[in-house]
Amino acid sequence: MLAALASPHRLRIIAALQAGGRNYISALARELGISRPLLHLHLAKLEEAGLVTSQLELSADGKALNYFEVVDFGLGLTPAAIAEAARSLTTKPES
Questions:
Q1: pTM of the prediction?
Q2: Which of 3, 35, 60, 64 is the most exposed place for a label (fewest CB within 10 A)?
Q3: How does pLDDT run across 63-78, given as a tens digit for each residue?
Q4: Residue-range domain boundaries for the chain
Q5: What CATH fold (topology level) applies to the domain 2-86?
Q6: How many C-beta atoms lie closer than 10 Å to residue 31's C-beta?
Q7: How many angstroms separate the CA atoms of 66 and 54, rounded?
């Protein structure tokens, strides 16, 4: 969870979804000013960490839209939580 929150892009995504509610990729990409492929990458990391969920829905004109929303989560940041997270660190930087 800490690794997923370590990116400024992912923090902005969570903030946008929290403020505006659930949203789909194209609208969220426009709102944040980032490309859809980059947004997909970051949303996948957030979803893998359990911080957002997605739901595929069909629009009235038959388009498939993948809506994302923030999961209600809490993170207690304690020395023990940091020590636990540190055990999962690698020497390779995240791509």
A1: 0.81
A2: 60
A3: 889 999 999 988 888 8
A4: 2-86
A5: Arc Repressor Mutant, subunit A (1.10.10)
A6: 16
A7: 6
Q: Cβ distance 14 to 52 under 8 Å?
A: yes
Q: What are phi and psi of 62, to 5 degrees?
A: 90, 5
Give residue-wise pLDDT tens across range 7-40: 999 999 999 999 999 999 999 999 999 999 999 9
Distance (Å, rounded) from C-alpha 22 to C-alpha 20? 7
Q: How far apart are CA 65 and CA 11, in angstroms?
A: 23
DSSP state for residue 88 in the 8-state scheme: T
For the CA atoms of 6, 9, 14, 15, what is the dihedral angle to 10 degrees?
A: 110
Distance CA 50, CA 71 (A): 7
Residue 54, φ and ψ in degrees, nearest 5: -130, 155
CA distance 33 to 53: 21
Task: Tell me the residue length of the chain.
Answer: 95
Any idea which residue has 């995504």 for tokens?
13
